[in-house]
Amino acid sequence: MIRTPLRPLARILDARSRGENPDAIERENIRLRHEEMRDRSRLRAEGRLLMLGVFFFCAFSVVGLRMGALSASEPSEPRASAAGASIVAQRADIVDRQGRILATNLETYSLYAQPPQMINPERAATELARVFPELKAEDLLEDFTGKRKFLWIRKKLSPEQKQAVHDIGDPGLMFGPREMRLYPNGRLAAHVLGGASFGREGVHAAEVIGVAGVERQFDDRLRDPAQDGKPLELSLDLSVQAAAEQVLYGGMKLMNAKGAAAVLMDVHTGEIISLVSLPDFDPNDRPRPATEGDASDSPLFNRAVQGVYELGSTFKIFAVAQAMELGLVNPDTLINTKGPLQWGRHRIRDFHNYGSELSITKVIVKSSNIGTARVAQMIGVARQKEFLRSLGLFEPTHVEMSEARAGKPLLPPNWSELSTMTISYGHGLSATPMHLAAGYAAIANGGTKVEPTLLKQSGPQYGPRVMSENTAAAARTMLRKVVTEGTASFGEVAGYAVGGKTGTADKPKENGGGYYKDKVIATFASMFPAHDPKYVLIVTLDEPVETSGAQPRRTAGWTAVPVAAEMIRRVAPLLGMHPEIEPAQLADITLTSN
Amino acid sequence: MTEMVHGSIPMRDVEPVLPKWWRTIDKWTMSCILILFGVGILLGLAASPPLAEKNGFEPFHYVQRQAFFGGLALVAMLATSMMNPVLVRRLAVLGFVGAFLALLALPFLGTDFGKGAVRWYSLGFASIQPSEFLKPGFVVVAAWMLAAGQEINGPPGRSWSLILTVTIVTLLAMQPDFGQACLILFGWGVMYFVAGAPMLLLVGMAGGVVLAGSFAYNNSEHFARRIDGFLSPDVDPTTQLGYATNAIREGGFFGVGVGEGEVKWSLPDAHTDFIIAVAAEEYGLVLVLIIIALYASIVVRSFLRLMKERDPFIRLAGTGLAAMFGVQAMINMGVAVRLLPAKGMTLPFVSYGGSSLIAGGIAVGMLLAFTRTRPQGEIGDILRGRPR
């Protein structure tokens, strides 16, 4: 404690010496100091109170002036949609390779209700149920008369519906401006585009977000204001896509298949010109994902990039090409095809008995499992794995769709020599048609790997080389022979020199025990024109059966090949390819004049 | 001797209460307050029928309640204004303690009436907001502490009052009721300013308020939304603020006419926070300016009277009460004209509200009691040769 000095010291000492109590002197001193201090503080407070008074006066004046200014200004009509006018096209369009619209935006309105502002909820409910038959008047009335202060009624309105609701005339029914995604071509390229839905919703605007396909893959790009609404250019060609879908749909119905997929790809640029998966859906009205049953039977399922199938004999060309590349065989090397080939408990058979020996070319042309298996034995496990990996068959394709990541190939858990043999003819390894298209494109373009892409490219890809030019050329010759004299004889399209390989794979049973006898995946992997391929086309039919003959026929040569041939016939002219009709033999020319 | 005294009126050495009150009261301020009360009833007639209709009462239900509570408030005001400052201080301290305890018990016993902040006690027929009663009590207690702190050998009143302020502000901010918290803080700041705060400290405090504001902005969504709404340049016409601004414009200088206003039907808070908008729409700028003038004259006149006051406690308490009263009115009107961010604050004596009316009556009564004419030792000053 600080000891307060006795003040005034002189008088106190004086008083003490006289024996008086100094307290009275000190109190007197304090009183005087108090009075002086009080006067000082009153003076100061006077000034500060004056300041406060002036401050308050000014502040009140400002409020008054502002009131006056407001009173003098013109009132504006309150409008519920004042902020809505500023909604601009936020999501970029999607166009095909020629700039034709695949997805765009449409200005529309959503309908919401504010029950507290309703004048006649009963009437509003019944009238709304009349405008929208899918709404129930009782439910609406319950919402309108309950505790809710706000509810959405419809997310999108047609102009007619909007007018009808407007005519109800209830102030509690309101419209919020919306921008909705429109796919003017309906089902066309549905799986590629995917679809969009509303994200966060407000009264004045709602976010449109992509839920599948490229809409989802490029969601950020499409919504990026920095792109300034620049459309996203896809590699698809709308007219080719339309023709391909039409042909594939017809083929699927003719062949009694439950599903089908087709991939048409430029072998140099990797651009996917057409990608079809059936059954399909309308992205404008995207169905709900299947909650029960097999998801791969849903129309939403993209068979071309999501569905992994054992693609059968189409794989044989990979084994043969690799063997040629390694110098193990040449097209004329004879291979022992005496069957059945016994390996452990497993027997490998051919569809027919092709005799004891076939040349490599014939192995492909006749599609001999035994011959391919023997070739695979020469290659061995490690080298086969390495080659298939270089073709991109070990990982999901990098095609720009959110679904592509789900199309991860199924590899044998334990890659034995038997696996090598079965995989050489397409069993034991499941991949998507897109994988197959990429693999065939490598053969078609002269031996370099191509990544399939859905974006328009400006030039060819120069991927890593997976086989030499000569090997690719030899493989192409064999594939051409499959069409001219082999299993794909229905695949001949005059003038387009189709080459390809059929593949018929028994479907594995869902519970994992063996294969169905009467359910196949029929695939035709083709390229055209075979001498200088521009495009690769994969057509896959799920459970086709051709019933025009005495026996139901399920092999790809009878099912997938005719569909693919028809598709090439329709699509090739659209792609700007001229049929190369070989000049008729000189002897047939009749000189009419000289 | 006996007969001289017997039967006659006993001589008293003090002046009778009522004449003394009438002689010393600030009649101008009191008139202003009575006029304000009348304006409140008048606006209640305009603003509250929509609410009554919504809640299923007869149209003037809330006007009757306003008149009833207003009568109570006037009685409280008159009774308080007749007390001497020491009695006012004693009762105010008791009231403050009671209100403080009530504030503490709010989280356990209070209700939020579905508004997201627990601020009220529901009594069935009426609700009580303890913070309304806390305000005048707090001003008196803080003024007492500050005044005592100035005494030689006195207690450390400034620190005590600061601690008290911070405690109350924290309690209010936790409800959350940032409006009342700011009022309390402001009232203390004004008193400290008049008590002779160093200027440097005041500047620092202003900075502190800015910091606290930004903290609240970052941590309370409730608060941030209102500030954002204020800062955005164009007012959304569908918000309360948009309606209020429009109503003021609609009213113009002379109003659209009694009972012709539209805004009261769209604004849920037309009878409380935005009553000035109703006034502006129906009666025009004229009435609004009268209301502003009434508030301004109450505040400024009280300050001018307090300038002559010698007793530091009375001066500080009166200053705090007048400043709080004026600031509350100013904030309410400032929000309606978009000078300030949206903040629910009633217009004292005009807005509807039972407990706020009575608390306002008590506060104004105290103000009147403190601004009564008192001998300020003028003769002593003259004798000692000091002016005034």
UniProtKB/TrEMBL annotation, chain A:
InterPro entries: Beta-lactam/transpept, Beta-lactam/transpept-like, PBP_dimer, PBP_dimer_sf, PCN-bd_Tpept
Gene3D superfamilies listed in its UniProt record: 3.30.450.330, DD-peptidase/beta-lactamase superfamily (3.40.710.10), Penicillin-binding protein 2a (Domain 2) (3.90.1310.10)
GO biological process, one term: cell division
Residue intervals passing through the bilayer: 49-69
Classification via Pfam families: PBP_dimer (PF03717), Transpeptidase (PF00905)
Cell compartments where the protein resides: Membrane
Domain Penicillin-binding protein transpeptidase: start-end pairs: 261-548
Domain Penicillin-binding protein dimerisation: 87-223
GO annotations of cellular component type: plasma membrane
Membrane listed as a keyword: yes
Protein name in UniProt: Cell division protein FtsI (Penicillin-binding protein 3)
UniProtKB/TrEMBL annotation, chain B:
InterPro entries: FtsW, FtsW/RodA
One GO BP annotation of this record: regulation of cell shape
Bilayer topology annotation: Multi-pass membrane protein
Pfam family membership, one: FTSW_RODA_SPOVE
Pathways involved: Cell wall biogenesis; peptidoglycan biosynthesis
Catalytic activity: [GlcNAc-(1->4)-Mur2Ac(oyl-L-Ala-gamma-D-Glu-L-Lys-D-Ala-D-Ala)](n)-di-trans,octa-cis-undecaprenyl diphosphate + beta-D-GlcNAc-(1->4)-Mur2Ac(oyl-L-Ala-gamma-D-Glu-L-Lys-D-Ala-D-Ala)-di-trans,octa-cis-undecaprenyl diphosphate = [GlcNAc-(1->4)-Mur2Ac(oyl-L-Ala-gamma-D-Glu-L-Lys-D-Ala-D-Ala)](n+1)-di-trans,octa-cis-undecaprenyl diphosphate + di-trans,octa-cis-undecaprenyl diphosphate + H(+)
Record-annotated membrane-spanning stretches: 28-47, 67-84, 91-110, 160-178, 190-217, 283-304, 316-337, 349-370
Cellular compartment(s): Cell membrane
Keyword Transferase: yes
EC number: 2.4.99.28
Alphabetic keyword roster: Cell cycle, Cell division, Cell membrane, Cell shape, Cell wall biogenesis/degradation, Glycosyltransferase, Membrane, Peptidoglycan synthesis, Transferase, Transmembrane, Transmembrane helix
Primary location group: membrane
Molecular function as annotated in GO: lipid-linked peptidoglycan transporter activity; peptidoglycan glycosyltransferase activity
GO CC terms, sorted: cell division site; plasma membrane
Recorded family membership: Belongs to the SEDS family. FtsW subfamily.
Protein name: Probable peptidoglycan glycosyltransferase FtsW
Organism: Thalassovita taeanensis
